[in-house]
Amino acid sequence: MERVNIAEKFARFSEQWQPKIVAELNGQEIKLVKVQGTFPWHHHDDVEEMFLVWRGRFRVEFRDRIIIELGPGELVVVPRGVEHCTAADEEAEAIVLEPAGVRNTGNVIDEKFTAPIGVRI
Amino acid sequence: MERVNIAEKFARFSEQWQPKIVAELNGQEIKLVKVQGTFPWHHHDDVEEMFLVWRGRFRVEFRDRIIIELGPGELVVVPRGVEHCTAADEEAEAIVLEPAGVRNTGNVIDEKFTAPIGVRI
Rounded to a whole number, what is the distance in Å from the CA of B25 to chain A's nearest CA? Predict the structure, then answer.
C-alpha cells in the first residue's frame, strides 16, 4: 500500500499534455496531466473519461458550442464516442480517470499531442 | 455533460459513513463520504478501492499494524481481498473510487455502518 500525494507528484514534472499514471485499480488508471493551450478534437470509442481539476481553470468543449468550464474540485465525465477538445488559457492541472491503456488523443494521431501510454510517476 | 462541484456536493449532506455517488464511468463509481470514528474491519472480494482525502485527516489501517495516514490530496488504493479499517479522529471527507454496486462494509453486514448501495447526490 502506497500513499500518493498528488501535489508532490505534480511537482515532479513540468511537461504539458503528457499524462502520468499515479494509481491503478480495477483496470482503470488515475493520471495527472498539466495542460495549457488547446488540445486536438478527438473521441474515445467505448471509453468514458473523467477530468477533475486540481489547479487552475480548464474547459472541455463539445461540438455545438457546448463548453464545460471547470475550476479546482470540479469534474466532468465525457461520454464514450463523443468528440471533445480540452483547453486552458493558463496552465492548469487535472486528474484524469479512464481505463488503462487509453491514448490521450483517442482516434487521432497528432505529432505534437499524442503522448506515450503507460508512463508512471 | 454535467459539471460536478465536489465542495457543493459535500455541502448537501451531513450523515457520516453513507457514500453518495456523484459520477459514474466505465462501470466505476465516484462517491463522496464523510467519516468520523472507526469503521468495521472488512474486505472486498475481487474489488480494489481508492480513497482520496478531500478534507481533514483520514487513515486506512491494515492488519499487522500498518497504518496509512492521509491528508487532503493524498490517496491510497486498497488491494482486493485485503482486510482494512478506515478511521478519522475528527470528521473528514473522502472521495471513493470503486466498481459500481460495492457494499461499503464488504464481506461484513453491520447494523450501524452498512449503508444503502446506489445512493446518488
Answer: 6
Task: Measure the CA–CA gap between A11 and A102, rounded to whole angstroms.
Answer: 24
Contact A50 B7 (CB under 8 A): no
Using an 8 Å CB-CB cutoff, list residues of chain A that contact chain B: 1-7, 22-26, 28, 30, 47-50, 52, 54, 60, 62, 66, 68-70, 73-79, 97-99
pLDDT at B84: 97
Q: Which residues of A touch B66 (CB under 8 A)?
A: 1
State the complex-level ipTM: 0.96
Q: What are phi and psi of A8, to 5 degrees?
A: -65, -40
Contact A39, A86 (CB under 8 A): yes
pLDDT digits (tens, 9 = 90+) for B13-65: 999 999 999 999 999 999 999 999 999 999 999 999 999 999 999 999 999 88
Q: For residue A118, is pLDDT > 90?
A: yes
